[in-house]
Amino acid sequence: MGKNFVEKIIASHIQDGEMISGQEIGIKIDQTLTQDATGTLAYLQFEAMGIPKVKTEISVSYVDHNTLQNDFRNMDDHVYLRTVAAKHGIYFSRPGNGICHQVHLERFGIPGKTMLGSDSHTPTSGGLGMLSIGAGGLDVAIAMAGGLFYLNMPEVIGVKLSGKLNPMCSAKDVILTLLKSETVKGGVGKIYEYFGHGLASLSVPQRATITNMGAELGATTSLFPSDEVTREWFKSQKRENQWIKAGADPDASYSRVIEMDLSRLVPMAACPHSPDNVVPVSELKDIIVDQVAIGSCTNSSIADLGAAADILEGKVIPENVSLGISPGSRQVFRQAVDQGIISRLVAAGARILEFACGPCIGMGFAPNSKGVSVRTFNRNFKARSGTKDADVYLVSPETAAATALMGRITDPREIKGVSIRDYSANAMVDDSMIIPPSEVPEAVQVIKGPNIKDCPIGLPLEENLKAEVLIKTEDNITTDHIMPAGSKILPLRSNIPEISKHVFEVLDPEFYNKAQKAGSGIIVGGENYGQGSSREHAALAPMYLGVKAVIAKGFARIHKSNLVNFGIIPFTFKNPADYDTISQGDILVIKNLKQGIQSSFELECLNQTQNKSFTVVHDLSRRFVDMILEGGLLNYTKNQ
Ligand code: MIC
Ligand code: SF4
Description:
Elements: H1 5-11, E1 14-16, E2 24-27, E3 31-35, H2 36-48, E4 58-62, H3 72-88, E5 91-93, H4 100-107, E6 114-117, E7 131-134, H5 137-144, E8 149-152, E9 155-162, H6 171-182, E10 190-195, H7 204-213, E11 221-223, H8 228-236, E12 256-261, E13 268-270, E14 278-280, E15 291-295, H9 302-312, E16 322-326, H10 330-338, H11 341-347, E17 351-352, E18 372-375, E19 391-394, H12 397-406, E20 434-435, E21 465-472, H13 479-482, H14 486-489, H15 496-499, H16 511-518, E22 521-525, H17 537-544, E23 547-552, H18 557-565, E24 569-573, E25 587-590, H19 593-599, E26 602-607, E27 612-617, H20 622-630, H21 633-639
Parallel strand pairs: 3-4, 3-6, 4-5, 6-7, 9-10, 9-12, 10-11, 15-16, 15-18, 16-17, 18-19, 21-22, 22-23, 23-24
Antiparallel strand pairs: 1-2, 2-8, 5-20, 13-14, 21-25, 24-27, 25-26, 26-27
The structure holds alpha-methylisocitric acid (MIC) and iron/sulfur cluster (SF4).
Alpha-methylisocitric acid binds next to helix 2.
């Protein structure tokens, strides 16, 4: 029996374990990627390992998140990242060069290789055939030091594409349609691999839109084969020599196959406040909008901006709409200038924002109070835009442009007489803002301004656990709830004592004070706890506040690993109904915890306040148990 493409890449990188679905495997990582909001901690942790030069084939440090520089903090981070990269063999993509995932797709990704990135949308490069996985910064630091990346061998789901997208339908509608059926937790423990005749009509940036937002399925990653379309992409990027043909064997099999006829898709939108709350755009047609934003790592290729310019050409947006454009990279922007795209967008009333994450992460361009914002981005979690009561809808660039034009949510097929041009030729190639590592690393001084604080380290596990339930949350709590981002909090990413004051602020403004008073604590969560970003701050800051365990109905993959990496035990309920018996403020006791997690997967937990016991379960491998015993991955690695 032949192998699918995922199995082929894993087979050529596996160095520990066996390729059996659900079993722990350790794979070698060829490339790493970090961005500034997670990168500072990753490099502090890498430095702590005392390794002079990264052991990967390519490691790149990007600056794209914290680019609104209200004071010294963000630029302190940029300077640290530039100097630490020069010293340790890492490429540095300067602020202003673009969003990590778009630039990596353009300049670094290679089919058949593996990549680990400290950002949940690292799977974007799956669009060109690289197995690209998002993880916490500490996992990325270990990979840079030559360590394996451990994960449970995912189940591989095939997505068989047929047909061709109709005009005004786009790759975004493919992934939104999939999110509607698979949901934000449908992909946990899975990889989506695309195949079939429909592939031929999807360009690499379109494929990358799909793999990018595959992160919202909760999937480990998504993967396209590397074919003639991919070759064209490499040609346009003037690195055809790095292209190889790669994909599944003809007789490959998948655990399940989803069939999708591209010609049957219609423009879709994810409604507030979840990427899987998807309906056809035509059902939203009376909603008046205040703001439209085009960009983010999901949709900021030249074809995306070009489509918007074609729809808006010769017209001006109505006075109720503010339109912001954040191009994905300098290459995209320069090409858009050369091809008249920027001029047409500006003529239509667009505001050109930085080539960075920007509004996607609440770094500026926040909507008005109770505003309706229609965005080509990938996440619409409540408050993420920077405005707590705003409603954010996620759509394709075509739908966004049509909506900006009409001032209400509009199916782009309503706009008659527009034909979208082909912008794929004449890509601009420009590496001048990518700094290679220093040739004399010993001469480089790593500069740490006052914003860079040491990363706290976990404590070894205590014998017994007795702690208060500091918060009880619903299902699908995101890392944006646990550790909010936005322009005020993001600059604190290198300063854990300060950022920890904002933990759970969106759900309970008193959380920090409660945690301080209690000294230690437990979090009780619902299904898919910790979905969304890879930010390890959502584990590290709670650890710093004394959180010892999270007991949830289920976990998102990256957050669960981050909890273990920082010594917090992720337990689930043996009987999910026990969730209902716990209240915030209850005191929970697990006796002989240290002994218990080593000898059994099930432990008894006494709710002392309610005088009831229930069973908690963990599924940690021996390696992960050892990490917990030692207070996290950093201690574990040091002690190895
Ligand atoms: C996001 O889109 O939520 C982020 C900001 O890119 C995060 C990373 C971070 O929090 O720094 C992600 O997706 O992992
Ligand atoms: Fe940046 Fe948004 Fe992409 Fe995250 S999802 S990397 S914040 S553009």
